[in-house]
Amino acid sequence: MKAWQLVSPDGLDSLQLGDTSEPTMSDNDVIVDIHAIALNHFDYKLASWGYATWEYPQTIGTDLSGVVIACGKNVSRFSPGDKVCAFADPRTSGAFAEQIAVEQHCLARVPDNVTHAAAAAIANVGLTACHTLLNKLKLNSGDALIINGAAGGVGAVATQLAKMNRLRVIAIDAGKHRQKLLSLGADCVLDYQHDNIAMEVMHETQGAMADALIDCVASKKAGAYASLLRYDGQLASVSESLGEVPVIAAMRGLTIHEISLSGVYAHGLREHREILIDNFHTLLNHISSGKLDPGITEYIAFEQLKDGLEKIRQGQSTGKIVVTVR
């Protein structure tokens, strides 16, 4: 079969399309014929970071949707022909291929009216946003939530989920994304380049400050934005660094949540993976009912996958790029 593989530990420069062996499965695995792949910032970063368990050439990629073609003898949840999607374990063979072996408890069933593209697109960003809002932050209807980097993949899904949960969303991003964020339901959109964020947040919350902040971009301003949280508020980081925030957290009694989706495989138990799949089904049901837009902005061929990753790395795409495999 065809697969995109790192032939050496040199990042995207070593990513090549070539032939490799078809996947083998254990008794609890299924083989999935991949129909669609979604690309993420995480993919090109992981290509540079690597894993100690990798053996080169190494297939990478996490977000996929496809059809089950074979099942191990202990598989009870799926049968050949089932439409499924997954956030693949990045430590093992990845999703940038025509087929993949996935443990049955790490797969979600895709509704008939949800496309493979939409199912793949919601995996990484959607699960991150869903885990942050449903499993980490403890918020009530009417609470004020700041989302820094709201127009990106995680931020856009978080904005929609927050509004479904009746939160007041203060979205921060570049001004060019204002109409997009308003269409997703944001109550207030602030331009980090031109607006006085502190003054605007104080105005929107009538001086009470926000209840929680989701930082999606590892911004140097995250510390300043954290200062807009009320005493005993909450901060969730889905980016790489909290910077100066811990000092502010100590002063304000903030609860800090680090979000690590891939950690569910390296450090989580089966129960944690079950929660992940429950969240997957929540997202898929929202897409099925028309409540959630997965944010796909571009479709590319399998042969163009590396170009798509380069586009993301260079900041030339804010929506989801989906690779059509079949």
From TrEMBL:
Keywords, alphabetical: NADP, Oxidoreductase
Signal sequence range: none
InterPro entries reported in the protein's UniProt record: ADH-like_C, ADH-like_N, ER, GroES-like_sf, NAD(P)-bd_dom_sf
SUPFAM superfamilies: GroES-like, NAD(P)-binding Rossmann-fold domains
A GO molecular-function descriptor: quinone reductase (NADPH) activity
Annotated Enoyl reductase (ER) domain residues: 11-323
Gene Ontology terms: cellular component: cytosol
Pfam families assigned: ADH_N (PF08240), ADH_zinc_N (PF00107)
Highest taxon in the source lineage: Bacteria
Protein name: Enoyl reductase (ER) domain-containing protein
Species this protein is from: Veronia pacifica
